Each structure stands twice: as C-alpha cells, then as structure tokens.
Amino acid sequence: MLPELLRFIGGRPLVGYWIDFDVRMLDKYLMRMLSIHLPNRRVDVSGLYYDRKFGNAPPGTRIDLSLASIRSDLDLPLLPQHDAFNDALSAAQMYVILKDMAARRVRIRRERGMEAGAGFAVG
Predict the structure, then answer these.
(1) 3-class secondary structure for 9-37?
(2) How confident is the model at residue 122 (pLDDT cuts 50, 70, 90)?
(3) Which residue, 50, 27, 51, is CA-closest to 39?
(4) Distance between CA atoms of residues 106 and 10, nearest Å
C-alpha cells in the first residue's frame, strides 16, 4: 500500500492534526523500503489554530490545542475520533476555515480568565 500512498500524495503538502506523529510512522516504513524520509511540507492545523487564537496572547495564558477545543471554536461537528476518514475530514475542514481566517486577519476570541493560570493542553 505504501507505493500507492506515495503516488497519491505526490509532492503535495500534508495537512493534519499533530501531523508530525503520522509522518514519523510513515518514515519508519519508508526508511526500511527506500532509505528515505517523506520530504513533503507539513501543515499542522494545531499550529494554524494557535496562530489565530493564541498568537498574540500575553504570557501566562492557558493554551488549549485539543481537538475538542479546535472543533468547538470553529463550530465543527464532533465526529468519532481515531477513524482515518473522520480525522482527515476534520483536519481538512479546520485547514480551510483557519486559512480563510488568516487571509481575512480574523482571530479566534479568547474567553476572559484564560490568562489566569499558565498551562498547556493537547489531545
């Protein structure tokens, strides 16, 4: 299946939620088969989300990059997680919305009190 996947991907950028994890999995097999790593540019929707919501946040802001927070802020439906199709669909929806927000210079509003305690949440 890996050769078919590589043909499908081609030179396109890869979009995903914490995409580096997925690419590391592919690289493990690519290294064994072809002695290469996947060279494609990666676009992580959690990074795009961070830029729109927390990019100008003051020190001490509680940062939540969880899938649930991103979906909620972007008003996306909650799909069953850890399903390849649903995960790809969610990442694609997030990418389109976040790129549009960036082009329009729209930020995601932070609630009051997020600055109260330093913290970071993922997952």
Answers:
(1) HCCCCEEECCHHHHHHHHHHHHHHHHCCC
(2) very low
(3) 27
(4) 32
- Rounded to 5°, the CA angle 79-82-84 comes to 90
pTM: 0.83
Tens-digit pLDDT profile for residues 61-83: 999 999 989 999 999 998 887 88
Residues 83/123/79/18 CA torsion (nearest 10 deg): -60
Write phi, then psi, for 33 (nearest 5 degrees).
Answer: -80, -45
Give the amino acid at 33.
M
State the pLDDT at residue 45. 98
Rounded-to-integer distance, Cα 62 and Cα 7, Å: 41
